[in-house]
Amino acid sequence: MVAERKIADDKTVVKVKNDMDIMDQTRGLNYEENLLWEKGYGDHPGVDLPTAKGTPSRTGLPARGKVGLPQLSEPQVLRHFVRLSTKNYSIDHGFFPLGSCTMKHNPRINEKIARLPGFGGIHPMQPESTVQGALRVMFELQEILGELTNLRGVCLTPAAGAHGELAGLMTIRRAHEMNGQGHRKVILVPDSAHGTNPATAAMCDYTLRVIPTKEGGRVTVEAFKEALGDGKDVAGMMVTNPNTCGLFESDIIQCADLLHKAGGYFYCDGANFNALVGKVRPGDFGVDVMHINLHKTFSTPHGGGGPGSGPICVNEKLRLYLPMPLVVKNADGSYHLEVEGERATSMGRLKGFQGQFGMHIRALTYILSHGADGLKQVAEDAVLNANYILSQLQDDYYVPFAGPCMHECLLTDKLQKESGVTTLDIAKTLIEHGMHPMTTFFPLVVSGAMLIEPTETESKESMDRFITVMKSVASDVKAGDSDKFHQFPLSAPRRRLDETKAAREPVLRWKA
Amino acid sequence: MIFEYQTFIAQLTGQDIANASMYDGATGAAEAALMAMRVTKRDKVVLGNTLHPHYRDVVATYINNQQGASLVDGKPDAQTACVIIQTPDFHGTPHNLADWRKMCDETGALLVVVVNEILSLGLLPAPVEADIVCGEAQSVGVAMSYGGPHLGFFATKEKYLRQMPGRLCGMTVDADGKRGFVLTLNTREQHIRREKATSNICTNQGLMALAFTVHMALLGEGGFKQLSTLNHERACDLADALTKAGLKVENQNFFNEFVIDLGKPAQAVVDKLATQGIIAGLALSGNKLLVAATEMTTDEHIKTFVNALKEVL
């Protein structure tokens, strides 16, 4: 059926393809919902605003014509988003073992504190005397992150993990330039690295030299030495530890020593800090600079893609070159936000204002509500949970690198692939069972990777349910009953989506 | 929801397509400059007018880390990758883009337009002349929160799609032929393309984009334009009250921000008024003060502010 709808003003009537078809597919509580623009054009907006007085315009430019926005009432808008929300899966629905993303529970106390008007309602450029509380939050977070990493120079401004990487590499670059080492243009990156690492190096105009991961899934001293060469052109290395195979890099101190002797800096991707927090300080295993994902380790919400927050922590060698601005404590106990020109050695400003301040508050709330003992238990339980899953599934799935693992475990589809069931099918089967899949096909160093990160906030009951589903897939495949897996999901709001069509014939916005 | 967000941004900016968000307006401007360098294979970025100083610093940081790239003020020439124009500019003046478009056409540079108050697009013409429009959408549904998390937007023409940074949501169908949505065109992105990606951006400002989309849906066509008009009217009221009090409004034209001359150092005035519970505005160099009004500004606020200013001047 094709419906007629008034679009974006009260005159134009256009035929809306699929409109009523979509609404008609609603069954039970499974609402089908059309787009805002397909819901008609009401007489009034969803908000009441004062009437304009009709003051003659002083913009010096002609007034904007029709924008083409929809116009709906408050209940229409409310229902629209509530219905869409029922088609999402979130950490508040259930198990979310998305490896490398640390999808842990977001404690609600964080939200309460971040929404206090004295935090949420302050302007980024208010006089310093009026924002001492906000600056103290930032200063205390800087101090705590410095303590947890033993990297005492902390800059909170980076907006996400990848932005922290950029901040870290630009800090390294600045340090080399200021020390007459600007000719160093190579960054060493293991083949197991997150895609952001090579992309970040490229944004800093660095060239990459890849360290191949040998059979154990780790960077060995031999492989590192080979990649380092004489090291004269090497600016630094980027290593994730624990790495993306869920393993602690056991040769890391020796590699760091060799790198330092050759004049390079060690950048640690902090995506997997949840395995170490409170237990191991990265500064103690040779790291010079590291970013922290507040939205992973420190529980700030990042559903659907952010906001993140990626502060960087550096040691004394790099402190002077950190991005602007840092919060410093004055002799009189007041707090001060650095202003332009105050620290001439800085690599510069990387983001407007002071970073994702609302995330700084949430992270500090999380840290203070856990305390030192609580944070230590976070890492211990995260590692314990991952090893529990590994121990339960190691007879059913191929384990490319022997455990024990850190906070995430890596399996592959090697045993199932012979019967035609791949990692993709297994992921879709988990959706059919009401669970979010693990990270699939990453890391790239193994074929058909399944990277499982349960986090410390998961109960044994939900992990057991996951294990049961995974075991039943493996046993069905073994028994020859494998065809059914290609059709899943059958019960989700949508079945497998045609990604090729989306890329070949891109439709990226609604159009009348 | 992300598809709806992308549609809102594309409609407001008069561009063909928009991505799923950037960290903020400043990093969006920096990514626009890098994108223009990729498209034109040139390495000079020109600032055409007064860009917000933080935006300027962030663009400079990104550019300074590119071999051979430079950032200069002025007009485009045959080496220019893009000209960046902020409208309204940092001092509040809206700009006509036609002349800049002409200069860009003559030199082969891209025109990057920064809109760091998205609400202005309800009253000012859509920047259709631009090749890339980026900026800040915090004022629609997102808390100020001392500077973050805010909402950077990024829109461009369809022909530049494959050089665009950031996530993109696209429409498709599922195995039963039902309409559905996916993140698409990720062969541009870091998790596929690694060092050849258009950007390293991964996590963006998803929850802020959601807040913006809900707020935009509530405002609708009528509400958005009304809100924009109210901002301008309150700014006109503020300008009139300040002029009446004998202060000089520097701008001939403005949207909801403008510069006044206090006749004495502005920073001292701002500090003094802060002790009386009044955030006066942003002190610029010398005697200049940048002030703003919004739909939240009442007659009482204006009266209190003008009286307090009179007392200290």
Report on this structure.
- The complex is a heterodimer of chains A (512) and B (313).
- With 512 residues, chain A is α/β, with parallel strands linked by helices.
- Chain A has 14 helices and 14 strands.
- In chain A, the strands form 4 sheets. Chain A has a 7-stranded mixed sheet, with helices on both faces. Chain A has a 3-stranded antiparallel sheet with strand order 12-14-13.
- In chain A, helix 3 packs antiparallel against helix 10.
- The longest helix of chain A has 37 residues.
- The model of chain B has no long low-confidence stretch (mean pLDDT 96).
- In chain B, helix 1 runs parallel beside helix 6 and helix 6 crosses helix 8.
- Chain B has a 7-stranded mixed sheet with strand order 1-7-6-5-4-2-3, with helices on both faces.
- The N and C termini of chain B lie far apart (50 Å).
- Helix content of chain B is 37%, strand content 18%.
- With 313 residues, chain B is of the alpha/beta class.
- The longest helix of chain B is centred in the C-terminal third of the chain and has 39 residues.
- The interface between A and B is large, with 118 and 123 residues.
Secondary-structure-based class of chain A equals alpha/beta
Q: Calculate Rg of chain B over CA atoms.
A: 21 Å
Kindly name the structural category of chain B.
alpha/beta
Strand order of the largest sheet of chain B: 1-7-6-5-4-2-3
Quaternary structure of the protein: heterodimer
The strand count of chain B comes to: 13
Q: Span between N and C termini of chain B? A: 50 Å
**How large is the count of helical segments of chain B?**
8
Strand % of chain B is 15-25%
Q: What is the count of DSSP helices of chain A, taking H or I runs of 4+ residues?
A: 14
Task: Indicate the percent of residues in helices of chain A.
Answer: 25-40%
Q: List the uncertain runs of chain A.
A: none
Q: What sequence of helices (H) and strands (E) makes up the elements of chain A?
A: EEHHHHHEHEHEHEHEEEEEHEHHEEHH
Largest interface: A-B, 118 and 123 residues
Report how far apart the termini of chain A are: 17 Å
Question: What is the percent of helical residues of chain B?
Answer: 25-40%
- Shape of chain A from CA axes? globular
Q: Note the beta-strand portion of chain A.
A: 5-15%
